[in-house]
Amino acid sequence: MKRKKIIAGNWKMNHTVTETSGFINEFKRNIADVDGVDIVLCPTFTSLQIAVDLTQNTNIAIGAQNVHWSKNGAFTGEISPSMLLDIPVAYVILGHSERRQYFGETDETVNMRLKSTLTTPLKPIVCIGEKLDERESGITEKIISGQLNDGLKDITAQQMNDIVIAYEPVWAIGTGVTATPEQAQEVHAFIRNLINEKYGVNVSESIRIQYGGSVKSKNADTLLTQSDIDGALVGGASLDCNEFVNIIRSAE
Fold first, then answer.
1. Is residue 234's pLDDT more than 80?
2. Positive or negative, the Cα torsion across 163, 3, 229, 240?
3. CATH (domain of 191)
């Protein structure tokens, strides 16, 4: 099955509203002719509204970097799905390793956020990935399997149609070290096989699995030609307009 590539830029805690505006105005001119790739930008919460306003009637979708599982309530500093839909954004990143590492995210809370997100039109990008010591200990598949099973607990095959999986080896995020195309493909194929066992071949062949972890224009070509890699979740390189455009061109 031919799966449409999806390239998402995770800006993390970078770019003010003013900087976001300048970036998007340049960016959308440079990728206006791209139609074979789904393009997603995930700025900070403060920049979501300007990002949505500036990308109306373009080929760019806007995503948030996190969302809470409750509709509202006493959750200081959190954002609800309805608040994101009111802007409105199209995608949301769930379970990024930095959320897990610094803010206590677990597979259980990822699952809670995912279930809440799937009651709305928001499209979740669910992140999974092993740490360096876990890879060196030879338990990558055990970690990935656990994150996938627990993160997708009680999710139906029909709901899987709205989900993107992002495999991000933690040891490759922001380190400059990238998984080799062969390493990345091996885990992507393992993930697809797990989804096949859980949901059947129709779901496993249609779901898109991104790679994330020090993706740059110089390595995008070799990563994106792997048979089970359907795009990229790009961190630092997505802050550079030309670099991000070149990654998208590689996917195209």
1. yes
2. negative
3. 3.20.20.70
Q: 160 with 198: CB under 8 angstroms? A: no
Read off the pTM: 0.96
Answer for the pair 4, 38: CB distance below 8 angstroms, yes or no: yes
Q: How many domains does the chain have?
A: 1
Determine the Cα–Cα distance for residues 229 and 6; give it in Å rounded to an integer: 10
- pLDDT tens across 54-63, in order? 999 999 999 9
Region 38-61 average pLDDT: 98
* Average pLDDT rounded to a whole number, residues 159-164: 96
- 219-242 average pLDDT score: 96
Neighbours of 239 (CB within 10 A): 17
**Active site residue ranges:** 96, 168
With H, G, I as helix, E, B as strand and everything else as coil, classify residue 13: coil
Structural domain boundaries enclosing 141: 5-251
Name the E strands within the chain: 5-10, 37-42, 60-64, 91-94, 123-128, 164-167, 208-211, 231-234
3-state secondary structure of 93: strand
Provide the token pair at 62.
């806007």
